[in-house]
Design goal:
By secondary structure, this protein is α/β, with parallel strands linked by helices. It has a single domain, classed as Glutaredoxin (3-Layer(aba) Sandwich), CATH 3.40.30. It has 5 helices and 7 strands. The protein has helices spanning about 1-25, 80-100, 110-120, 135-140, 165-180, and strands at about 45, 60-65, 70-75, 100-105, 125-130, 145-150, 155-160. Strands 5-4-3-6-7 form a 5-stranded mixed beta sheet. A two-stranded antiparallel sheet has the order 1-2. Strand 3, helix 2 (about 80-100) and strand 4 (about 100-105) form a beta-alpha-beta unit. The longest helix has 22 residues, at about 1-25. Its main location: other. Keywords: Cytochrome c-type biogenesis, Disulfide bond, Redox-active center. This is DsbE family thiol:disulfide interchange protein. Belongs to the thioredoxin family. DsbE subfamily.
């Protein structure tokens, strides 16, 4: 019995070691987490407009129902997110090359900080909402920012990209999907 008590910490340590080594595996892709929303209806949400006082910008609050009828990309971003800065020019490419409207949701970000980020980097979004408490992000099941979802005309989530977009992702994954959804 005493021997088992002495072995218990070793067994626990071995289990923790296996767990941590799996997490540090260089071949593991954390962005490859499947979204439970794929193939399901967009979560019900209402996002207050971020840029409500800016002229020339659609300043209405928007909700999930406003995203039906066209293929759209919903992009979660934050001013404090460095990968969001890296992906920002690529978001403009989605609209210019694919003609897909991009809806931005400032996730767990202060309104002033998110508005300053867009003023500095440019605004690639058709509409921008805020999710300061993070509730919309939770409903979408996001694991971090940036994260982008492709939504079909019926409001069904068709694809999730965890992490920053890049031209290769657009060419190989998003463009073929958008072409198929727009048929």
């Amino acid at each position: 019995m005493r021997r088992l008590i002495f072995l218990l910490p070793l067994v626990v340590l071995a289990a923790l070691l296996v767990f941590f080594l799996r997490g540090l595996d260089p071949s593991r892709d954390p962005s490859a987490i499947d979204s439970p929303l794929i193939g399901k209806a967009l979560p019900t949400f209402s996002a207050p407009a971020l840029l409500a006082d800016k002229p020339g910008i659609d300043s209405r609050d928007f909700a999930d129902g406003d995203l039906r009828g066209k293929v759209v990309a919903v992009n979660f971003f934050a001013s404090w997110c460095l990968p969001c800065r890296a992906e920002h020019p690529v978001l403009k490419q989605l609209t210019s090359e694919l003609g897909i409207p991009v809806i931005g949701i400032a996730y767990k970000d202060k309104k002033d900080a998110a508005a300053g980020f867009l003023a500095e980097m440019g605004n690639p979004y058709l509409r921008v909402g805020t999710d300061e408490p993070g509730r919309i992000g939770i409903d979408f099941g996001i694991t971090g920012v940036p994260e982008t979802f492709i939504i079909d005309k019926q409001g069904i989530v068709r694809h999730r990209i965890g992490g920053p977009l890049n031209p290769q992702l657009i060419d190989e994954e998003i463009a073929p999907l958008v072409r198929e959804l727009n048929k």
